[in-house]
Amino acid sequence: MKKTLTLCTLALAITATGVSAKTLRMGYNHQDDHPTGLAMIKFGELVEKYTDGKYKVKAYPNGQLGDERRMLEQLQMRMLDISKTATTLMTTYAPEYSVLTMPYMFNGPEHFKATLQGEIGEELLMRAEGRNLIGMTFLYDEPRSYYTVKQPVTSPDDLSGQKIRVMNSSDAIEVAQTMGATPTPISWSEVYTALQQGVVDGAEGGPSALTLARHGDVAKYFSNSQHVLYPGMIVIGKHVWEGLNDQEKAEFKQAATEAAEYQMGLFLTLQNDAIVEMQEMGVTITEPEMKDFREKAQPYINKYTQQPELKKLADRIQSTES
To answer: Which of 110, 129, 213, 304 is deepest in the core (most CB within 10 A)?
Structure first.
């Protein structure tokens, strides 16, 4: 009798949608109350909605499946179906992504949106197809600025001799070196303690790093240099993408686009709120001379745009009207 009931339940599930729902595994390293975590949840909900329940997405947040580099490898090996990653890691799979990680490539959120939600972005999403990774959309992130424990950074000269925590990425390390800092890659979860114990003199990040992660309890100087913005991406495995029909691909893309817009709105609100909260925490906010930082970054940009196609891409991005 029990077996009969089970078969009847399965039959009803199949009849309700025409086919049994397929569950996709999605991993990301953000908490579910973070703008990016919330966007990934939204993406899963929208996929289920737009495909009329044919696809469901099971989320594994907060690095449950490993760091972003490991999750990309899992996508390639078909052990994972969807992930969020930083473009700094995608440079391993396609050199064009390195242009997106260059200092001062984006002049604010509207320029970011016009570029990466437009024609240029659509072209770049497919650059790693040959490595079994399909980009669904680009995700906004806060522009990174320098924040320090003991003294403000008002010019690149102030970074000399300063140990600055950066992502464990060759691009992030070299940008910090170009700016004059001593880059120190440390896991994000260890940054607060590293600041507190003097392992590093400061870090780079957006305003919310000082509020949500409470780095402002220790680092009392925030220099609004906004020297780099590392876009994120929602990436799907090629094994999943090739199994979708044209309508389903359009539905997945629509879900990704709406999730990205939702995430960007959350981030912009968070940034504004964090600036106010930082001041309440006793953090001193300085507005450095951006011209000095841009000039300091230029050798890095020149070095990595020597290839004509990368120089052309950088020029296209910077000439995009927001």
So the answer is: 304
